[in-house]
Amino acid sequence: MSLDTTLSPNVGSWLQNATSIVMKLNDGEDFTTLLTATNGFILLGTVLAGYVIRLSVKGSQTRPGEPPLLPGAVPLLGHALKFGSDSNGLYENARDWSPNAEPVSLSLMGKRVYLLLNARDVNAGWRAKSLSFDPVCEWGLSTMFGMSVEGVKQMGTDPDGLGGMTENQHAFWRDALAPGDALNLITQRFMNQLDSDLADYERSVRAAGSVTAELRDWTRTRLGIQSTNAFAGKALLEKDPKMLHKLAIWDLDFYLLSIGLPKWMLSRANKNLESMIQTWIDINRTGSSEVYHPMMRRLEMMEVRGASEWDKGSANFCLWMATQANALPIEFWFVYQIALNKSLQPTLLAEIGPAFDENNKIVNLNHLLHNAPLLNSIYWESLRYTSGAVSVREVLEDTVINGYTFYAGSMVMSPMRILNFSKDTFGPDANDFVPDRFVRPHNPEKGQYNPGIKVVKSFGGGVTLCPGRHFAGNEILAFTASILQRFKIELVEGQKIAYPLTSAPVVGTFPADREVFVRLSPRN
């Protein structure tokens, strides 16, 4: 996962319901309340009123050649109310309103935002050097990951001739996680943790006979432990066993942190973030040999730039978050669909069997990657169906895309879900979860489309194409196959079907709209 899926520095400052949500957060509202909190009343302080009025006049006007403004903007706020309460719904409204899904303008508290809604325009945006991700990255490091303003500036310096760290981050991680020796190294670290953790867990399930668990929490815990230990060694979770729980809270808090309010107004969210940064500071101080080497290499680069311990802790928290933020919720959806479509399990078991030895240990990961077509189809369909990723760029200079002028100082947003649900690409069943979508015959005459996995845009694209996508596929396929090989996974009876909660603000993957309980029992 990359920062490409987060909000922009300018968009983030217009979001929602500052007073009531802040009070709820400081009172410790639970997960369900946070996801369903009423958005829409934005606090306009007296001091800001004149400024907002001036911006609202500017925001209601379009400039020559600019994409047309989506109807429905209200005085002062523009489209901010809808954006704050259901941004995905706003993107869908724009797609349905625009002929041929051409670019559309939004006005958010006077700021112009351009939406790219078809694959051709999105690709053009990714290619345009005048649309930059770097300002978004720099803003996110400070606003959502707790790095100091000075630390962000230091990241942009080049004392070692390697370029600014914000500029070279994707190239660095692309190489550190590239297929070949680099990918094999981190994958083997993960596989060691996978085998050890699941062997211990299987013994506990056998002793109990069966275990009932809430699936989101279960997948987050099991895969989170294994992946965290692979990147950070066991010291991180030994230092703070609640780190994964705190990360789940941060995942809910990130859009509130992006508002940019004073820390005292988001005291609980900031205390949670600061606690995780402090744990990483403690790990960094030990110089643990268990921490994945490229993470330590980034710390060395920060030291050359004079970074503080706090900023180095913030940087490693950011990197660790990137390994978890999308993999864990995708794993939930992957396992849920397998449990929901239980008639597919015999085929899946036959596919994955040759990858395991007699002790249920994976001895041939390549078999899972290349010779388990239904397993891979469900994985890619899970990515397509649940992604809420939005690619964000800032317009550095006036730019023309598809005949429209994008003016400097504005933002560009490309919601991947719009592409992933295109009926032109995926057919009339694009709104449905189809487990065999990527293995079925391509027969448009019968309304059956199989466009291939390359058109799934959940990992972003362009220079910010997620550098960890290969490892994510390795760990998720290995984990899913392993638990399917070891356990019978059954949905507890009487539950309604879970769907993505598309109104929820997310880093990249939508959560379920309800809890899901499963029963696990030993398969043999």
From TrEMBL:
Database matches in Gene3D superfamilies: Cytochrome P450
Domain of life the protein comes from: Eukaryota
Signal peptide segment: none
One annotated GO molecular function: heme binding
UniProt-annotated binding residues for heme: C466
Record-annotated membrane-spanning stretches: 31-53
Xref: PROSITE patterns: CYTOCHROME_P450
Alphabetized UniProt keyword annotations: Heme, Iron, Membrane, Metal-binding, Monooxygenase, Oxidoreductase, Transmembrane, Transmembrane helix
Cofactors that this protein relies on: heme
Ranges in coiled-coil conformation: none
Keyword Transferase: no
Keyword Zinc-finger in record: no
Pfam families with a match to the protein in the record: p450
Family assignment from sequence similarity: Belongs to the cytochrome P450 family.
Protein name: Related to cytochrome p450, putative-Talaromyces stipitatus
Species of provenance: Serendipita indica (strain DSM 11827)
